[in-house]
Batch of 2 targets.
Target 1
Amino acid sequence: MPERTARATLKRRQSDRLERDRQNVSTGTLIIIGGNEDKSGDRLILSEVASHAREGVLVVATVASSVPEENWGLYRPVFSEMGVRRIEHLDLPTRAAAFRAGALECLQDARAVFFTGGDQGQIATRIAGTPVHDAIRNLYEGGACIAGTSAGAAAMSETVITSMHGDDQHSDVRAFTTIAGLGLLRGVLIDQHFAQRGRMTRLLAAVGQNPALFGIGIDEDTAIVVNADIISVVGAGSVYLVDGHDMTASNTLEHGSGALCAYDMRVHVLNASNRFDLITRRPATCSGERA
């Protein structure tokens, strides 16, 4: 096939894929928070969550936490002060609890579901594939807001990064593993507490192992709001996007040295003035761009 014809064919296939992706976009909103969000000042991020539920029910899901009552006691008064009239608590101490009628009743009239921090593995093992998972997915596809901070943020994607050796090992490409998540935001990997815990190497390595996925690292007190696959940034920090589609080589599946090597990855860094299109993988706006 002549080179010009091959390029035209590739361009047409890419255009067809983009159109299919646009048609499959959910009507709901995701608010994915890097952790340690402001709870006592202007509370920009939590105000964004509350805005989706002031006329309905907001469910605080403490599934990831080892101290669920403590987290419930932390977030309930914050959302109440913001004008949310009905706030429910979803705690699933076991996977079996996600099959009980009470858990589904809690979600029935929800306009927003907020996952607190803790261990993202607990969200995956206790919810994935259960009636609660189906109910949350249906809420999102029906226009509700699903939000999460820290571990609650990481669990939003189909593939979830989780640490193997603690937070001090992120320079080693072997110091993490991946598990299945809730799959609300498809085609991505999410990492949180990003700059604060030095997780760039971990995210680069995770994308190196899964180059079809788009890596998203979110700083503390920072969130991405996702509507129709358009990211808007809220908060004080930055969001780091790692695109491995054009990567030509990496050592992430090799044994031996844990030092990362990868070629031809693309990195974008966003702040609160920016928007980004996850389907075209290009910035939608940037305050630093020339006209």
Target 2
Amino acid sequence: MNNQHSPRVVLVTGAGRGIGEAIAMAFARAGDNLVLVSRTFPELVRVAKQACAYGVEALALGANVANYYEVRHAVKVAIARFGHIDVLVNNAGICGPVGPLADNNPCEWVDTILNNLAGTAFCMQAVLPYMIQRRQGIIINISGGGAVRPRPCFSSYAASKAAVVRLTETVAAEVLQYNIRINAIAPGIVNTRMLEPILAAGKKAGPEFTSARQQQLCGGHSAKDAAALALFLASPAASSITGRLISAVWDEWHSIADVLRGEPGSSICTLRRIDGREFLEQARPRAVSAPQSAPSIKSGREFGLPTGSRSIGP
């Protein structure tokens, strides 16, 4: 156990496997108590038992993030057990229908938005009142493929993940006065069960079918990268970072905090226009005369009701 700080209470959704499990175990190794939430309760029990090997307590709660009432109940159970929630990690999500939008089942399309976007919002809505009351808290949302570029044949997933980023930016501005930080992580291409619907879709997945087969054979990025970034964003070293989308793989995230301290109003690691209009509007009040044409924009790499509950402890 890492004793660099007092044990915090960290709620992780979708914590039964994949990226959620990796993030939960990283916080357990750091000495933090866990609230593990997922629809797959048996998997949560397994992760909780593994976490307790590090001397922490883990509360497993079966709940569907797409159901606000289940989310609210899970948060109330966690508050009753621990008294507060220091960190919320919104990881739960689904791939959704694969194939061109015109061929998608509309109910499955909407269900993806409900799980990935509304589920994230529901968890934030349930936790934020407690964080606001304490005037402190950290929220980390998992974004990903489609958030910053088109993702053909995955329109519901891409749209939901892009919306998660703008939700992150917007609510981060709303709660800044309460010392609450909210950021989003792009975890990279990680081998999780989300590969299964892509492989099953075959040609309907478009170019991503070939990529998924190669990823399955050769391996993708490690879930440990996203877990390491989540730990960083929940640490005092990231106190200047809020309302940002950060890649666990491509961004030099250890140095982003230093950059933002010097440029708190910077648009770095945010969704923004890139055609120059926004930059013209920002520059005009400071300029002696408006430029005749849009300034050149330097482009570069992105900087970067419940099915069960159980408390397990040492």
